[in-house]
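Fold it.
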Amino acid sequence: MPLGRPPGGVTAADAVAAYIRGAPGLLSPTRNRIAIKHHRQAPEMTWRRTVPVPPDPRAMLELRDEEVRVLMDTRALRLVYDEVRTAMWRRFAMHRFVADLAAGDLVAWGTDSDAVPLSWWQSDVELDIGRGCLFGLNDRRLPLRSGLRFFAAADAPPEVMRRQAVVSRFGSAQAAVAAAIAEHRDELVGQRRADQLAVLAARLPGVGLATIETSLRRLRVTRRGQEAAD
């Protein structure tokens, strides 16, 4: 995978540019919005054009002579071949980028300190490369995740390692948050939501704020220090 680990990972545009640089030829980088589903399927390597062979050799020569006469000049033909070749290699580079994300070889993290689930890269989502945002098909204005930064799986950021330690202890991030709420219930009583998030985030390294806030909404801490399930 043509992606190293700069400090803090790389943006979506830089990650895509790294894959494009790994393809033959001079391909220009892109910052467009792409459909992940479209690039999951690998493009065909080759294509063939077949024509029926005339039984009469003289007819074959006449057909060949006619085809030669309608051909473009060599310069125009080279430009066409270059365009086709460039488009094909770009498609391969984008397919490799999406395939590595779906396989977990490349990990994307958002500003909420939560990793993008692998299943999202196998669904109908769109990636805005320039903005580093991931959108669903039902809402193309409000992103599912924003501020994405990409890491090679072998070079995971410290947040990944801390999150894995928490998840391995409790079985899931949600279970870890529920245990932390129960343990620090008295400290959380009467606090504002922002303060509750700060207290739990300090005790749950690597667990994203979105996960903590979801669990706080599901397990409400009342002013009496009791927990009530929605």
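The first helix runs from residue 12 to 21.
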